Amino acid sequence: MTHLRRYGTLIGFVGILLFFWWELPDTFLTQGNLLNISRQVSMLAVVAFVMTVVMAMGDFDLSVGSMASLAGVVAGVSFAAGYPIWVGVGAALLAGLAGGLFNGFLVSVLRILPFVATLGTLTVFSGLAFLASDGRTISGANIPDAFSQFARLRVEMLGLPMPSLTLLAIAVLVMVWVVLEQTPYGRRLYAIGGNMEAARLAGTRIVKLRLTAFAFTGVGAAIAGLMYASRVASANPTQGDGLMLDAIAAVFLGMTMSDEGEPRVLGTLVGVLILAVLDNGLSQMSVDSYVREILIGGIILMAVASGSLGGLRRR
Amino acid sequence: MAAFSVRAMQIELSNLSKSYGTAPVLRDVKLTLQGGQVHALMGENGAGKSTLIRVLAGVTPADSIDLTIDGRAVNLRSAADAADLGLRFVHQELNIVPQLTVAENIGLSRPTPTRLGLIDWGKLNTRATAALARFGATHIDPRAQAGSLGTGDRILIVLAGLLADETPARVLVMDEPTAALTHAEADRLFAVIAELKAQGAAVLYVSHRMEEVMQIADRVTVLRDGLVAMTTPTGTTTKEAVIHAMTGRTLTHVYPPRRGTIHSGNVLEVDELSAGPLHGISFSLRHGETLGIAGLENAGQSALLQAILGAVPRRGAVRLAGNLAPASPASAWAAGMAYVPRERRREGLMLGRGITPNITLPHLAAHAWHGIFSSAKAERDTATRLGAQVALKYDRVDQNVATLSGGNQQKIVFARAIASDPRLVLLDEPTRGVDVGARADIYALIAGLGAKGAGVLMTSSDLPELIGLCDRIAVLRDGTIGCIIPTDDLTPARLLSLIYGDTTIKDAS
Amino acid sequence: MTIRPILGALAIGLLATAATAQQRVAVITPYLAQPGTQFYIDGFEAAASPDWDINVIDTAGDIAAVISRIEDAVTQNVDAIVINVDPAQVSAGLQTAMEAGIPVVGMDAGMSDMLATNVTSNGYAMAAETSVYVANRLAGAGNVVMFVFDPFPPVQIRGAIADAVFANHPDINVIARVTPDVQDGGIADSRAQMEALLAANPEPGSINAVWAAWDQPALGALQAIEDAGRADEGIVIVGMDANPQAREAIAAGGNFEASMAQDFAGIGAAAADAVARLLAGETIAQPVIYVPTVLITTANVDE
Hints:
By secondary structure, chain A is mainly α. Helix content of chain A is 75%, strand content 3%. Chain A has 14 helices and 2 strands, in the order H-H-H-H-H-H-H-E-E-H-H-H-H-H-H-H. Helix content of chain B is 32%, strand content 26%. Chain B has 2 domains: 10-247, Rossmann fold (3-Layer(aba) Sandwich); 266-347 and 424-500, Rossmann fold (3-Layer(aba) Sandwich).
């Protein structure tokens, strides 16, 4: 039972892969399609990876989607004003850092519940994005070619034409994995998630850790926003908004696979891949988009429910 | 209208026994409650008072119990039975919903009066006013939000709710009702109790406070190690006799002899410390010395340890080995302090996590390469080594700590504290909820700390334990240190009378 | 535990793949939930060949997902793709389709050399029609207020054409060329701007017409004129797009006299026709196919 609880999601993922392989023998498990999937999901993946950082502390960041939008708009506005690419990208990353630190300040210093604090900043960031862009989509000649070409770039690696966005997502994955799993910093974040008061009394600097973790997530969201803007060669004040819910869903899917139900970034990776594979496979099978949404929601509930059922039985 | 319907009734409780496993908690206890009388129940922590109350409330089934009301045998097998028999309880944790009004809280256990499907506020408030008036608590506005009231008034709300019940109340059991009350509030409560008594209530009053027991109780029963050590009218006994009955037990634990020597230098100097309920605290602790902190329940023992750790805001100077200690737990641990909190599950452990992270929590940087990259192996090795050192019983080192016994959980918190060879160890109720076997291990660990030259500052409500482990004991009274006394030749009874701060009590031993 | 949804997906998959050996067309839009989009789709499906297996995919506003779904359609090697989103934003996907030799038809999408063709209404012609309507109503002489929005290219076209038409009438005087704030669609700010213009030109007959590049400013101007009590001066108002509010105003027979209706279903049908031609092996020479638009006045507003 415990094994089913822990590996259920992974088994389900493999099942989904086999199912699409069976249904789409010529087009699904091909190098081209798999690389496509990796690129399609790269932005969501980055947001989900950095979401794992705050969720390790038992916190949430609901503002990642609007931060991604804001970062894209900040870059777009800088480009439109004639600044070079590095300035636009730097400004977007700074916006992510500032927004993340602000979230962290609200949560750790002012001790506002993360749900409430980041719900507030979600709206603030979104408003800023609308303000900066005048509510318009910045596209066409305003976006430098080199910036939008980045998303289409492929780098020959291990004999594979790896999409640049995929490589970027892998880089973020490795970084988050090292930080969360291999450093005292990350282990302390998990300690906060395990019992914040115990961690504090045992000498963990709660305020500093929460502040920086939210900043980390803000910068990650900004990176995802830039990836998105590059992929669509444009910036619009709402384009990243949809990333937040999918990212939380991916982390939850991943949490069903860890020992104690804590978020692990490799679990998040599987969660992200489940979402991406379902999107890709079902769309290839011409399944109605709305049915797809119902299926994805159902699978999330199923996975999480199987986890808590396992928990119930142990009780 | 009187809240109590039965006058001069007699409730006899006898043959009450209860064991947990092989450990007897109550042994053949007999207790007689009389309508119109206040009966005090006293005893040290672990004497069996809480178990007795839980049995009466029908929450804990007794192994054997005979209960008669006016000579007629009745059953007490469930909380519903207790309610039907007219037993009412005011627990230490008051069942108050702070967001609701006083009237709603009083009417909580009964159907809310409605008109056209909406709450009939008029009727609800009238009922509440009547319920409060029954014992003269007319100063409380039934429309006020319960959360806005002080603890004293909250108790009265609970009382009003209990007595407004449909079935008539016979017995009122109050568990330490004055623990969090001011003097004025306590006096008001005593007036209410006197009024209820006049109406024919039988009150079972549990308290640690000698003064008030002598003041309001007609009879007193003392429990010791699950046995009735004394039961007598308060008029025919003395405080000394009661204290003797409470503490005169045979020692159930053998405390390890002190090893090593107390060095001359001070490991801790506290100067004019104020924090929370505490003020003007000054003392010093030498290397290798163990200092106990005693006091009534909630006299500020925990606050003192947390203030020294820097976990609560404080004023005044705390010096660790001569250097001013910054007021933050992180700096305190880094400077060589270690801390074992009182509430193990809430403040100590990451329940749901494995043994290793729970032990290495404050020492992660020490187990990382250049403090940057953690080594899972180094952490596991430390956990294994310390687990052996504290005689931890476990299956796997990645075992979830929630699956361990209370004693083993406490050993994990101890292992965490001793992992970095601390200079000063703060122990808050180190044997709270710990079984007898693990206690001995923990006593040995505490003695070992002193032997290694660490200073130990510990609290305990188990007085023989405090005397057995400590070199000196500081008694907290009224938010400050009343006296500091060496433990040579100190008896529990003498300590208890110091805790009560009653200089009129002579050494009962 | 996760086996059940797979079975569900299996059932759906069987249904979906039951029709094989047909020509497959993927219609991808981020805007299906918006009211106008459904007209395109309905028109497209009505005019489509019964032999096509049409898959309508909505990405719920997510533009990047449109690229992803174009890539998926290319992986599936569909026969044609139809999009209604700015091609500049999804050029990454269009490039993939082009490399795979799969034709992409734009359905009111915008011009792009990566589209086989784009089916849309002629903005130039629409603007010409309403501005000429104004010029004719004024008999070639009078003062005109223009509401324009040059930052958005499709609307900028309309303004440029109206400029030309009015410039061609020496006695028509454009007294203001207003760019309203469009945060709320443009009604409120247009109304405020018009109120200021009316105050600045208090003489009856000092403003003869309002030409708006879309309906909202026209509606705002109408409100300002009516509230100022100057509805009986015969100020002619024209808008564009013929949205329901504008149709109502036209039907009421007041100052709002005309607007241009695009034929959304017709655009859908023409897109289906373009797909059919492409599937038949034809090359479409025109990068843009225009579908006729209709001037809406009191005469035909009820149709």
